[in-house]
Amino acid sequence: MVLVPVPALFILRLFQVNETITFGCPVLECRKSNDALNARFQSIEAGPPPSAAAKRGARSKPTKGGAEPVQRSGTRAQRLLKASVEVTKWRSERAPAEHIGRAQARARCGKKGKPMPVDQSVYPAKELCSRCGFCNTSLIAQVQDACAFLGAGMARIDQLEHTVHGRPRQEEELYFGVQDGLRPIQVAPEARTGRRAWTGVVTSIACEMLRSKAVDAVLCVSSTVDKPLEPKPILARSVEEVLQTGGVKPMLSPNLLPLEELWQVRGEDIQRLLFIGVGCQVQALRSVEADLGLKELYVLGTNCVDNPRNAEALHRFLQSASETPETATGFEFMQDNRIHVKHSDGRYERIPVFSLKEPQNCTGVIAKSCYSCFDYVNALTDLTVGYMGVPWQGGRMTEHQQYCVVRNERGQKMLRLSQSVLELGQAEELQVDGRLSRQQLLPEVLRPELDLAFGQRKPRPEPPRWLAELLSEVFTWLGPQGLDFARASIDRATLRNLVCLEVDLLKKRAGQQMELDATLPKHAKKIRSQYQELFETLLETYRGKQVQ
Ligand SMILES: Cc1cc2nc3c(=O)[nH]c(=O)nc-3n(C[C@H](O)[C@H](O)[C@H](O)COP(=O)(O)OP(=O)(O)OC[C@H]3O[C@@H](n4cnc5c(N)ncnc54)[C@H](O)[C@@H]3O)c2cc1C
Ligand code: SF4
Ligand code: SF4
C-alpha cells in the first residue's frame, strides 16, 4: 500500500551508541577469511593516527590476521562504511562453489545466534526496525551485515545489485533499478485467482512455480480469516496454500521468520525456494543467501512504501479514510487520486484523497523504518511487480493492469513458466506525458507530507464532497501519468525520507553514528541532486523537530 503516493500529496497541500562491529561467517571453511576480514576491518578502523602516518609517510603495519594493511583516511564513519561495503561484497560473492545441502550448511554453522522471541519489544535497529523477522531466526548473528537499518544499511544495495544481477545500476536505471525489461502485466481474466490485490500476478506466478516444480516451497504472506489485513508469513508447500495468500496485508511483516524452518526438520527437503517480499526483507535475505544451503533461490517482490507500523496505526488510517473501517479487506491509493477501499461484503469505497477525515490523526501511522527507506522498487529481486507505473484505466483495482520489472534471467524464467496465465503488454504503453511535470508539483506536495511526519499538521475543515471529487478529477488529468507517476512517487518518498533522516532519524540509528551519505544508495543521492535547493530549504524548515 502507499500511504500517500504522489498525488495524494496534493491533498496535503490543500488541507492542510557506540558499538563494536565484528564480521561473522557461520561457515567453518570461511573462518580463515573471516579472521582476515575482521583483521582488515580493524586495520581500516584502527590504523595509525593520520598525523603519525603522514609523518612517516608510511602505511599501517600488517595485522595479525594477515590482512593487507590499509592507509587510514577519511572520518570514522567513512572507514566503517568502507569496511562494511567490503564485507557485503565478500559475503555475497562467497556462495559455495558446489551446493553443500542444508544439513551440511547447518553443521558447518560456526556462528549461530539465539533467535529473538516474536514478542520481543526492542530489536537491534531499535526505533528504525522494520520487524522483518530476520532477528527471530538463528541468522541473527549476522544482523550487523544484513539489516537494512544498521551500519551502512541501504548503501549496501549498490554492491548487492552488482552481485545479484551481475552488473551495477546504469544511468537510465536510476528509478526502477537494474532491468532486463519493464512491461505492463496482468493475469488473463479467465485465470484470475479469488484472493488477490490487483489481478493476482504475484500469486499466479507463485502457483506456476510450484506447479512446474521449479520450487519446493513459497515463502509468502498469509493472514487469518478474522484479521485479513494482518500479515502471517508462511512456507507454503502447495498451490492451495499459496492461493490463500493473495492480497496486500498493509503492515510491517516478519517475512524472514519462516526461514528458521529451513534449519529445522520440517524444512530439510526444501532445496528450491521462492521468496516473496518487500525491499527491506529482500536486502536481509540477499545478505545471507549463501548461508541458506539452498540449491536455488528465486525472489519475487512488490514495490513498497509507507507501511503502517502496526494494527493500531492501520486502524487509525482506515478510520480517517473509510465510513466502515471494520469491514475493510484491502485498500490502495490509486492513480485517480482516490483511495479505493475493498470491503468483505464486496463493496468498494472510492474516497477522494482530499476527503480524508481529520488527516492530522494519521501522524504516527507510517513506520519509522519506512521514513528511512530508499528501496521503493525492491531493487534486489529477480522480478518486481507493482501498479504505480501503469496509466490509470478506470474500474476496480482487481481488474486493473499492473507492471513488472524483470531484473535478470531468474526473473525471465518466472515469466516464462507462468506465460499460460499472464498477459504482457509493450513497454511503450507505460510512457504517457502528463500536463504538469513532477518537478513543478513536488514542492507543493512535500510540505504537508513532512508536516504529517513531524506531527505539524493542523486540523482544517474538509471540503464538500463534490469539490473533493472535482479536485481528484482535475489532478488526475493534469498530473504525471504512467512511468512518470511512478517517478514522482519515488522522488516524493526519497526527498521526504532524506529530510526525516538528516533532521532526526539518523541520530536514532543504533550503533555508530554515520553521516547521511554513508547510509544512502547512489540512486538516492542522485535524486537529491535534482532537488538540492528544495532539500536544503526543507532541512531548514524542519530542523530541530522529531519524526513522530
Ligand atoms: C506493503 C506494500 C506496499 C505497497 N506499495 C506499493 C506502491 O506504493 N506502489 C506500487 O506500485 N505497488 C505497491 N505495492 C504492490 C502492489 O500493491 C501489489 O502488491 C502488487 O501490484 C502485486 O499485486 P498482485 O495482485 O499481483 O498481488 P497478489 O497476487 O495479491 O499477491 C500479493 C503478495 O504480496 C505479499 N504480501 C502481502 N502483504 C505483504 C507485506 N506486508 N509484506 C510483504 N509481502 C506482502 C503476499 O505474500 C502475496 O504473495 C505494495 C505492496 C505491499 C505489500
Ligand atoms: S529490521 Fe530486521 S534485521 Fe533489522 S533489527 Fe529489525 S528484525 Fe532485525
Ligand atoms: S517501505 Fe521500506 S522499510 Fe517500509 S516495509 Fe516497505 S521496504 Fe520495508
UniProtKB/TrEMBL annotation:
On the tree of life, the source organism's domain of life is Eukaryota
Q: Using the record, list the residue span of the signal peptide; answer none if the entry has no such feature.
A: 1-20
**Is Signal one of the keywords?**
yes
Domain Coenzyme F420 hydrogenase/dehydrogenase beta subunit C-terminal span(s) in chain numbering: 271-427
> InterPro entries this protein is in?
Co_F420_Hydgase/DH_bsu_N, FRHB/FDHB/HCAR-like, FrhB_FdhB_C
* Entries under Pfam families matching the protein: FrhB_FdhB_C, FrhB_FdhB_N
Sequence segments annotated as region (Disordered): 44-74
Instruction: Tell me the ranges covered by the Coenzyme F420 hydrogenase/dehydrogenase beta subunit N-terminal domain, including all copies.
Output: 194-257
- Give the protein's recorded name: Chloroplastic
